[in-house]
Amino acid sequence: MVDFRLYAITGETFHPGRRLVDVMEQAIRGGADIVQFRDKTSGREELLRKAAELRELTRRYGIPFIVNDHVDIAMEVDADGIHLGQGDMPISEARKLVGSKIIGISTHAISEAQLAEAEGADYIGVGPIYATATKADVVDPVGLSYIREVAGVIKIPFVAIGGIKLGNVEEVIRAGASRVCAVSEIVGSPDPEAVCRAFIHKLEGRGGAA
Ligand code: TZP
Ligand code: MG
């Protein structure tokens, strides 16, 4: 079973002038313990090159590496898993392609979460909790109540995502999330390592009064 606490997703537009692998290595050094390569703009060759670099990095640190959208790229670089959206291929189809690799899927409502669990997802994304500008086609924020709902009924690991910052993560944790995911707060920071360390601190319940 896959498990993790702090899920870091790539977002190169947030760190112009800094190398993708350097930024993600800093995140890992700070405590990010799973990495997803999410890239909506590069062509196949670029995707493959970046994915291969991130595969090498995550293998060096012994943490799971997930590829968003591109099952073929995930297979080619021997990623640990893939992440699907609701509009992507069904889990049953993905399972045939990736075998025992990790399959994660984004969910925005409890019906989607229950279906994902029944269909054999290894983990689900739960969000967007707050408004976010990171994802263009994102649905309206689902709010903290969705975390409470999922925490009550879903058995597989779930990770809260969408607009999560150091300034609001404590209420996300209090709502029942023990795993969180962030893009802009981590990779947009000049010090991703320090941000991740602070996230971990709060996830461990050592954040003090919010
Ligand atoms: N899926 C749901 S919200 C989101 C994704 C990929 C973007 C989260 O980015 P940020 O910058 O942490 O709000
Ligand atoms: Mg997708």
From TrEMBL:
Entry binding sites for Mg(2+): D69, D88
Assigned keywords, A-Z: Magnesium, Metal-binding, Thiamine biosynthesis, Transferase
Gene field: thiE
Catalytic activity: 2-[(2R,5Z)-2-carboxy-4-methylthiazol-5(2H)-ylidene]ethyl phosphate + 4-amino-2-methyl-5-(diphosphooxymethyl)pyrimidine + 2 H(+) = thiamine phosphate + CO2 + diphosphate; 2-(2-carboxy-4-methylthiazol-5-yl)ethyl phosphate + 4-amino-2-methyl-5-(diphosphooxymethyl)pyrimidine + 2 H(+) = thiamine phosphate + CO2 + diphosphate; 4-methyl-5-(2-phosphooxyethyl)-thiazole + 4-amino-2-methyl-5-(diphosphooxymethyl)pyrimidine + H(+) = thiamine phosphate + diphosphate
Name of the protein described by the UniProt record: Thiamine-phosphate synthase
Entry GO CC: cytoplasm
Binding site for 2-[(2R,5Z)-2-carboxy-4-methylthiazol-5(2H)-ylidene]ethyl phosphate: T132, A133, T134, G163, V183, S184
Residue runs in coiled coils: none
Cofactor or coenzyme needed: Mg(2+)
Positions with a binding annotation for 4-amino-2-methyl-5-(diphosphooxymethyl)pyrimidine: Q36, F37, R38, D39, K40, N68, S106, K135
Highest taxon of the lineage: Bacteria
InterPro entries in alphabetical order: Aldolase_TIM, ThiamineP_synth_sf, ThiamineP_synth_TenI, TMP_synthase
Enzyme class, first EC level, given as a word: transferase
Biological role: Condenses 4-methyl-5-(beta-hydroxyethyl)thiazole monophosphate (THZ-P) and 2-methyl-4-amino-5-hydroxymethyl pyrimidine pyrophosphate (HMP-PP) to form thiamine monophosphate (TMP).
